[in-house]
Specification:
Number of domains: 3
CATH superfamily of the largest domain: Spore Coat Polysaccharide Biosynthesis Protein SpsA, Chain A
Order of helices and strands: EEEEEEHEHEHEHEEHEHEEHHEHHHHH
Helix content: 25-40%
Radius of gyration: 21 Å
Strand content: 15-25%
Distance between the termini: 41 Å
Largest sheet: 9 strands, mixed
Structural class: alpha/beta
Oligomer: single chain
CATH architecture of the largest domain: Alpha-Beta Complex
């Protein structure tokens, strides 16, 4: 069973503090750059002389997310012989991080529906649901959307192992993540609908911080959060962690069309800057009024993804605010082998090409994109051609990793055709 890192701590002795890993691992690390992953609160370090990292076998170093109360400071990387780290080492590493930025926590607790879309991955779903049901939040329910299932394993697991009145199982027979998310929106009871994936572990304070994000402005339609890798035992997971920006954004932000950020020349047509589909929430009424998710996008369709990117952009284009609330944390299990990483790269590239096609076919968005930056298309495609530029783990030159990047780049070119084929199939409405 997956364990969130923020479980109540247990004390080894009067001075040692035990910390659980972000996620359980079924396999030992197989990479020299592997990191044990967990989280600490900087304000509690003075109370202990050492940190004891649980289930540390096979690791030599640790990557720790540093929080200060509800705020996120950033990540530190430390040597941890035998899973032990002196507080003095931690304090030195923490002192190099930027000062904490308030994430504006709130006391409001609106009813929230959590939606988990899944397809025949019961082994992942168990851990995700278990963490959700441990959330420190007074009023929420959970919808498990069983999308185009080929087996009964999801139904069997939910009905046999999660007999909780807060959990409902709903089948969506037509494949496609947008369809599954729309089914969740339609059946949700909460005024806020929070989405996560079946390969994640949510932090216990996740929904409290989601609610706080909606309180940051009166016109907030979408809140996203931090999605760091919860397991970095293979070089493929390390590559992916380096590859995406949403695993490291620790500064709260509010994005609106009225105030374009100077450092994002293609705004609001940005890849990775707003968050990812593993961790976001929508105002249900606003999302439905916008037409919900575009079913021409999403895993399970020809385009392979981008339903989250499309939604984030539409929220901003429709005049609403999108809040990045890093303190709303969801840990993600990245793909750990070459074959699954290739598939993911192909899907990411195809989805990006399809989404760019939609942007350029709409006169309004095409004009806006090109007005923001004549280099917009090149910048967007370039996202698929190189790492993010803010490496968190050392990456050696690796021909297999280079192959993954080539696959992603080549797949961008397939996106337009896949987009048209998906539209011709009757899926999606151009918005």
């Amino acid at each position: 069973m997956n364990l969130p890192i923020s479980l109540p701590t247990q004390y080894f002795d009067a001075t040692d503090l035990e910390v659980a890993p972000a996620m359980d691992s079924n396999c030992p690390p197989d990479w020299a750059g592997a990191r044990w992953i967990g989280s600490i609160d900087a304000s509690s370090l003075t109370e202990h002389s050492r940190l004891k990292l649980l289930v540390f076998d096979g690791y030599e170093r640790a990557r720790l997310l540093v929080r200060e109360g509800t705020s996120v400071r950033g990540f530190i990387d430390v040597v941890a012989p035998g899973g032990l780290v002196d507080t003095s080492v931690l304090e030195a590493a923490v002192s190099a991080l930027p000062a904490a930025v308030s994430s504006a926590s709130s006391a409001s607790t609106p009813f929230i529906t959590v939606v988990v879309c899944t397809r025949d991955r019961a082994s992942h779903l168990r851990g995700s649901l278990a963490a959700i049901l441990r959330l420190d939040y007074p009023s929420f329910d959970v919808l498990v959307i069983d999308n185009a299932a080929k087996t009964t394993e999801t139904e069997d697991v939910v009905r046999a192992e999660f007999r909780d009145p807060r959990v409902r199982l709903i089948a969506e027979p037509v494949p496609g993540l947008s369809r599954a998310r729309n089914t969740g929106l339609r059946h949700a009871r909460g005024e806020i609908v929070a989405f996560t994936d079946d390969d994640t572990v949510v932090d216990p304070a996740w929904l409290r911080e989601i609610a706080a994000g909606f309180d940051r402005a009166s016109d907030v339609a979408c809140v996203t959060g931090l999605v760091p890798g919860g397991e970095l035992r293979s070089r493929f997971q390390g590559f992916f962690e380096d590859r995406v920006s949403w695993s490291r954004v620790v500064e709260p932000k509010i994005f609106t069309l009225a105030e374009p950020p100077a450092d994002l020349p293609t705004f609001p047509f940005c890849v990775g800057e707003f968050g990812t589909g593993a961790n976001f929430a929508l105002n249900r009424r606003i999302a439905l009024s916008m037409g919900a998710f575009d079913t021409a996008f999403g895993v399970g369709t020809r385009t392979g993804g981008a339903e989250d990117l499309d939604m984030f952009t539409r929220v901003i284009l429709d005049g609403y605010s999108l809040v990045v609330q890093p303190s709303a944390i969801v840990w993600h299990r990245h793909r750990d082998d070459l074959d699954t990483l290739r598939l993911q790269a192909r899907g990411y590239g195809t989805a990006l090409g399809a989404w760019i096609t939609k942007v350029l076919l709409n006169p309004r968005t095409a004009r806006l994109a090109l007005a923001r930056s004549p280099r917009a298309l090149r910048i967007l495609i370039g996202k698929a051609a190189r790492p993010s530029g803010s490496s968190v783990l050392p990456q050696e030159r690796d021909p297999q990793i280079a192959e993954v990047l080539r696959i992603e780049m080549a797949s961008v070119a397939r996106g337009p055709l896949k987009y048209f084929l998906q539209r011709l199939s009757g899926e999606g409405v151009i918005r």
